[in-house]
């Protein structure tokens, strides 16, 4: 392929607003072009990378007998009404109407669509298990799209769905998909971790998130420094180590505390540590009030609370709700004077607190000498807090560390979450109607470009692994007006292509410095430069990743490239 015939609009400087290294380099190297906030055009080089990633994905999906399909991106809203997600998914959902005033959405994911397909086409367990997948743009109206392809309003995704008659088949397919994903990410040259993830808006039970460590990552990965334990921050646990003091419990005492509202103010007022103050936070879970108690130096983990309650809608109570259900104002909420409808949850460490301080449930008052197990009843204790770096890993091996990561894939055991709502039933072995058991498996394909670029790039530009690089070899005749150089370049191009290499030949009328800078920026694995020594039958070969160069005779180029290429990752 001649470079003069390709659209590769390289830039000397990154456009304003580009923050992440991957975003800057993909813009500068002419891989992507912003069309609007959070929406990008994939230019020829990027599309070739994407095509190579898709080829690897399709090969691995074929190996586990997954069927490729393609669903519409514009979906009838009534399907999402059936599942209940039309009202719970949130403001990221793109909604629209057609000329007949019928409601539609732009698909952010396709659980409902595939479930309805199975409902309408599969009637017996004999046709199961079945795995269907697609590679397609998805749409989510992100409030703050950022970092280029990392957080977009339109993005490329591979989403797969499995349908089984029982949990045994689901578990087998889940394991097969996990292994296939590992093979995919190994092949594309990505450093990644598998971590415990949160199902979020997808629902279901078990889930594994694949995360690529990167400074620009928006997720916090919590991992043990001595074991394989790793989890998303929202799902991370630490080993519970009781620190209850063996002291006498004092009588509960109400104390006037005007203008003392924050945990810091309470600790200062009573001349104590924040760890001896109870933090009381009122939430609304599916429109029902829930009070969560944690130690004052800890933070409530909203995801843990939401999952514990199996809630769809979950948010902080507003001032009116605090008044209605806690009979006070923010800053004085506590496990006293509550409305009968309030569910009380407390973190495990709260029951270890002795003679603590807590909101009294009335304005400008706190209780001193609060002991949870003595002073309140009908409270449920569990892990409701955010873990902290340095705590003991939940498996007891090592301590917890933090790192940043990019979520690149997520797999879920959905169970019958969608099949029950959409009546996707089949006849089982006993002739009875039974909802199909589902799994969901996604890969953020466009996100992979960001993750790989963040991990592989250097100060000069992108560096693509050979498995997904848009071309294998960048062939550069330094001076296209030099007949000898062009003759050697044309001969090498044909020889390399005949051996199965994809070659990008820079036949542009540009200075050598421009060509070399653009070559480093574009990031192909191997560069072959035909320069002044072409008249002697000698060319230079450079490995982009290491910067190593070697001069070889023209007749040895193909063999040398073959040897070097074999050793590349």
Automatic annotation (TrEMBL):
<dbReference type="GO" id="GO:0005524">
    <property type="term" value="F:ATP binding"/>
</dbReference>
<dbReference type="InterPro" id="IPR004500">
    <property type="entry name" value="Pro-tRNA-synth_IIa_bac-type"/>
</dbReference>
<dbReference type="InterPro" id="IPR006195">
    <property type="entry name" value="aa-tRNA-synth_II"/>
</dbReference>
<keyword id="KW-0030">Aminoacyl-tRNA synthetase</keyword>
<dbReference type="InterPro" id="IPR002316">
    <property type="entry name" value="Pro-tRNA-ligase_IIa"/>
</dbReference>
<dbReference type="InterPro" id="IPR004154">
    <property type="entry name" value="Anticodon-bd"/>
</dbReference>
<dbReference type="InterPro" id="IPR036621">
    <property type="entry name" value="Anticodon-bd_dom_sf"/>
</dbReference>
<comment type="function">
    <text>Catalyzes the attachment of proline to tRNA(Pro) in a two-step reaction: proline is first activated by ATP to form Pro-AMP and then transferred to the acceptor end of tRNA(Pro). As ProRS can inadvertently accommodate and process non-cognate amino acids such as alanine and cysteine, to avoid such errors it has two additional distinct editing activities against alanine. One activity is designated as 'pretransfer' editing and involves the tRNA(Pro)-independent hydrolysis of activated Ala-AMP.</text>
</comment>
<dbReference type="InterPro" id="IPR023717">
    <property type="entry name" value="Pro-tRNA-Synthase_IIa_type1"/>
</dbReference>
<dbReference type="InterPro" id="IPR045864">
    <property type="entry name" value="aa-tRNA-synth_II/BPL/LPL"/>
</dbReference>
<feature type="domain" description="Aminoacyl-transfer RNA synthetases class-II family profile">
    <location>
        <begin position="33"/>
        <end position="465"/>
    </location>
</feature>
<keyword id="KW-0547">Nucleotide-binding</keyword>
<dbReference type="Pfam" id="PF03129">
    <property type="entry name" value="HGTP_anticodon"/>
</dbReference>
<dbReference type="GO" id="GO:0006433">
    <property type="term" value="P:prolyl-tRNA aminoacylation"/>
</dbReference>
<comment type="subunit">
    <text>Homodimer.</text>
</comment>
<keyword id="KW-0436">Ligase</keyword>
<comment type="similarity">
    <text>Belongs to the class-II aminoacyl-tRNA synthetase family. ProS type 1 subfamily.</text>
</comment>
<dbReference type="GO" id="GO:0005829">
    <property type="term" value="C:cytosol"/>
</dbReference>
<dbReference type="InterPro" id="IPR044140">
    <property type="entry name" value="ProRS_anticodon_short"/>
</dbReference>
<dbReference type="GO" id="GO:0140096">
    <property type="term" value="F:catalytic activity, acting on a protein"/>
</dbReference>
<dbReference type="InterPro" id="IPR007214">
    <property type="entry name" value="YbaK/aa-tRNA-synth-assoc-dom"/>
</dbReference>
<dbReference type="InterPro" id="IPR036754">
    <property type="entry name" value="YbaK/aa-tRNA-synt-asso_dom_sf"/>
</dbReference>
<keyword id="KW-0963">Cytoplasm</keyword>
<dbReference type="GO" id="GO:0004827">
    <property type="term" value="F:proline-tRNA ligase activity"/>
</dbReference>
<dbReference type="InterPro" id="IPR002314">
    <property type="entry name" value="aa-tRNA-synt_IIb"/>
</dbReference>
<keyword id="KW-0067">ATP-binding</keyword>
<dbReference type="InterPro" id="IPR033730">
    <property type="entry name" value="ProRS_core_prok"/>
</dbReference>
<dbReference type="InterPro" id="IPR050062">
    <property type="entry name" value="Pro-tRNA_synthetase"/>
</dbReference>
<dbReference type="Pfam" id="PF00587">
    <property type="entry name" value="tRNA-synt_2b"/>
</dbReference>
<keyword id="KW-0648">Protein biosynthesis</keyword>
<protein>
    <recommendedName>
        <fullName>Proline--tRNA ligase</fullName>
        <ecNumber>6.1.1.15</ecNumber>
    </recommendedName>
</protein>
<dbReference type="Pfam" id="PF04073">
    <property type="entry name" value="tRNA_edit"/>
</dbReference>
<dbReference type="GO" id="GO:0016740">
    <property type="term" value="F:transferase activity"/>
</dbReference>
<dbReference type="GO" id="GO:0002161">
    <property type="term" value="F:aminoacyl-tRNA deacylase activity"/>
</dbReference>
């Amino acid at each position: 392929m001649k470079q003069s015939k390709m659209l590769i609009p390289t830039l000397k400087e990154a456009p304003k607003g580009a923050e992440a290294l991957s975003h800057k380099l993909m813009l500068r190297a002419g891989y992507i072009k912003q069309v609007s906030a959070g929406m990008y055009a994939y230019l020829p080089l990027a599309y070739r990378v994407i095509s190579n990633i898709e080829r690897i994905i399709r090969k691995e999906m074929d190996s586990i007998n997954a069927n490729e399909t393609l669903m519409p991106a514009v979906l009838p809203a009534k399907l999402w009404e059936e599942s209940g997600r039309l009202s719970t998914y949130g403001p990221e959902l793109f909604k629209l109407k057609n000329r007949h005033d019928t409601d539609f959405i732009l698909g952010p994911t396709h659980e409902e669509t595939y479930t309805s397909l199975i409902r309408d086409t599969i009637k017996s367990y004999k046709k199961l298990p079945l795995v269907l997948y697609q590679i397609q743009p998805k749409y989510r109206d992100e409030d703050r799209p950022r970092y280029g392809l990392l957080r977009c309003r339109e993005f490329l995704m591979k989403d797969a769905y499995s349908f089984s008659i029982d949990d045994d088949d689901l578990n087998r397919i889940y394991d097969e998909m996990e292994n296939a994903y590992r093979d995919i990410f190994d092949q594309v040259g990505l450093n990644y971790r598998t971590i415990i993830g949160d199902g979020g808006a997808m629902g279901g039970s078990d889930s594994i998130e694949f995360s690529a460590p990167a400074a620009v990552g928006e997720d916090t990965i919590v991992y043990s420094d001595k074991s394989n334990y790793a989890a998303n921050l929202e799902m991370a646990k630490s080993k519970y180590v009781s620190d209850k003091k063996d002291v006498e419990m004092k009588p509960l005492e109400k104390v006037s505390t005007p203008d003392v509202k924050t945990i810091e103010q309470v600790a200062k007022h009573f001349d104590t540590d924040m760890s001896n103050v109870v933090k009381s936070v009122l939430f609304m879970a599916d429109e029902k009030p829930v009070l969560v108690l944690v130690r004052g130096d800890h933070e409530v983990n909203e995801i843990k609370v939401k999952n514990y309650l199996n809630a769809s809608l979950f948010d902080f109570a507003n001032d009116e709700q605090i008044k209605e259900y806690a009979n006070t104002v923010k800053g004085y909420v506590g496990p006293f004077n509550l409305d009968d409808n309030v569910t009380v949850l407390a973190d495990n460490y709260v029951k270890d607190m002795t003679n603590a301080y807590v909101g009294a449930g009335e304005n400008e008052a706190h209780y001193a000498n609060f002991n949870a197990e003595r002073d309140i009843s009908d409270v449920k204790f569990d892990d409701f807090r955010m873990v902290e770096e340095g705590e003991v890993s939940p498996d007891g091996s090592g301590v917890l560390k933090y790192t940043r990561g990019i979520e690149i894939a997520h797999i879920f055991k959905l169970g019958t979450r969608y099949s029950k709502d959409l009546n996707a039933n089949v006849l089982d072995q006993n002739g009875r109607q039974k909802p199909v058991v589902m799994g969901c498996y996604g890969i953020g394909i466009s996100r992979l470009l960001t993750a790989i670029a963040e991990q592989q790039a250097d100060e000069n530009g992108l560096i693509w692994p050979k498995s997904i690089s848009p071309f294998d070899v960048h062939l550069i005749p330094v001076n296209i007006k030099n007949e000898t150089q062009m003759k050697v370049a044309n001969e090498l191009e044909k020889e390399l292509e005949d051996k199965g290499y994809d070659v990008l030949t820079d036949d542009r009328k540009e200075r050598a410095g421009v060509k070399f800078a653009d070559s480093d920026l574009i990031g192909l694995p191997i560069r072959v430069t035909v320069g002044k020594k072409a008249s002697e039958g000698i060319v230079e070969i450079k490995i982009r990743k290491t910067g190593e160069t070697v001069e070889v005779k023209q007749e040895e180029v193909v063999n040398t490239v073959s040897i070097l290429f074999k050793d590349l990752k």
